[in-house]
Amino acid sequence: MDPNTYPQTQELQQGMQQIQEQLQLLLQQKAELDHLTDALQELKKRPQKQDVLVPFGAGIYLKAEIKDPTHVLLNVGAGVTVEKDINATLVLIEKQAKELHTIEGSMQEELAHVRQQLQFLQMSGMQQKE
Predict the structure, then answer these.
(1) pLDDT per residue as tens digits for the range 47-103
(2) Fewer beta carbons below 10 Å: N end or C end of the chain?
(3) In the chain, what are the domain boundaries?
(4) Exposure on the CB side of residue 87, measured as CA atoms within 13 A
(5) Number of H helices, E strands in the chain
(6) What pLDDT digit, counting tens, does each position of 25-59 carry?
(7) Long-range pairs for 96-105 at CB < 8 Å and ≥24 separation?
(8) What is the largest CA-CA distance in the chain?
(9) In angstroms, rounded to a whole number, what is the distance separating the alpha carbons of residues 123 and 90?
């Protein structure tokens, strides 16, 4: 590798790795939203006052009763929650999923651009050796 292009190559590789890590986190968020959507759709089908198991942590569950399966509490930040009906919550989740999809597209484009720069740098380094 050309010593003149080594710092640039290393910087691009680090940038590529960071983008890939961010993409992985984004994909996890998308999967979480998909799981949440499925869970809310299932909740809509349940009758009133149904018993459920709530994960408490480390494989421990609590028995609980869903008193109102038509509404959920949303954390809006700073420890504040608001009550929303499930349909409004599903609309909000769909909006978030679309935003994540848009961000994913931008990140994929950025990743492709960094790869292209890296390939160009590597090709120009090979040509200088010849």
Answers:
(1) 677 888 999 999 999 999 888 888 999 998 999 999 999 999 999 999 999 999 999
(2) C
(3) 6-129
(4) 0
(5) 2, 4
(6) 999 999 999 999 999 998 888 767 788 899 999 99
(7) 96/33, 97/30, 97/33, 97/34, 97/37, 100/26, 100/29, 100/30, 100/33, 101/30, 103/26, 104/23, 104/26, 104/27, 104/30
(8) 77
(9) 49
